[in-house]
Amino acid sequence: MADDNLPTLPALGGRVFDAIVEISDHQVADADGRSVCTVADIQLEGVEFDADVDASAPPPRIVALLDGPVLATRMFGGRPPESRFHRIPWESVTEIGTVIHIDTYGDDMDITWTERWMRDHVIGHIPGGRHDPE
Predict the structure, then answer these.
(1) Going by DSSP bridges, is the β-strand pair 27-29/99-102 parallel, antiparallel, or unpaired?
(2) Which of 12, 23, 37, 70 counts the most CB atoms within 10 A of its CB?
(3) Which domains occur in the chain, in start order?
(4) 92 with 102: CB under 8 angstroms?
(5) H helices present in 1-134, as ranges
(6) In angstroms, what CA-CA distances link 133 with 60, 127, 128, 129, 130?
(7) Phi-psi region for residue 35, left (φ > 0), alpha (ψ -120 to 50) or beta?
(8) For 5-28, how does the pLDDT look when each residue is reduced to its tens digit (9 = 90+)?
(9) Neighbour count for residue 27 (Cβ, 10 Å)
(10) List of residues 6+ apart from 53 with CB closer than 8 A
């Protein structure tokens, strides 16, 4: 049963929002508006994994958006190693909405290496694969 007498939160600088609802599983678009990835997780500072949070502690801050191979772990449990995640620094986020916009170009990011590799080594060798259809 929910407690109707919740304490009043102190005034905080910045924007307060529910990261699970407004960030998790959202598409990330680069500076050109092209889809780069989907947010798999977020990296926080100010809170330790699997530890109790002191009520007087300041709220955690988002450090980075994470993308990586999480489909299998969502189906079978567990978590990929930290080294498998690609990080987008929180400072790169310019807008949060249905799509999360960043100020970086996708071609400059390691996240899109598989798409670039497929474009250059597979799709580019298919007749008509190097240009838009007419």
Answers:
(1) parallel
(2) 37
(3) 19-49+58-125 (2.30.30.240)
(4) yes
(5) 19-22, 71-76, 113-121
(6) 48, 11, 7, 9, 9
(7) beta
(8) 766 766 666 777 788 888 988 999
(9) 13
(10) 47
Please tell me the predicted confidence (pLDDT) of residue 30.
94
The SS3 call for residue 35 is: strand
Average pLDDT of every residue of the chain: 83
Token match 């980075």: residue? 64
Cα 116–81–33 angle (5° rounding)?
35
Q: Yes or no: say if 37 and 111 are a contact pair by the CB < 8 Å rule.
A: yes
Q: Which two tokens stand for residue 67?
A: 């993308």
* 67 CB burial (10 A radius; 0-12, 13-18, 19+): buried
Which tokens belong to 61?
Answer: 């801050």
Residue 11, SS3 per DSSP: coil
Residue 102's SS3 state is strand
- Its pTM stands at 0.71
Question: What is the distance between the alpha carbons of residues 117 and 110, in angstroms, rounded to a whole number?
Answer: 11
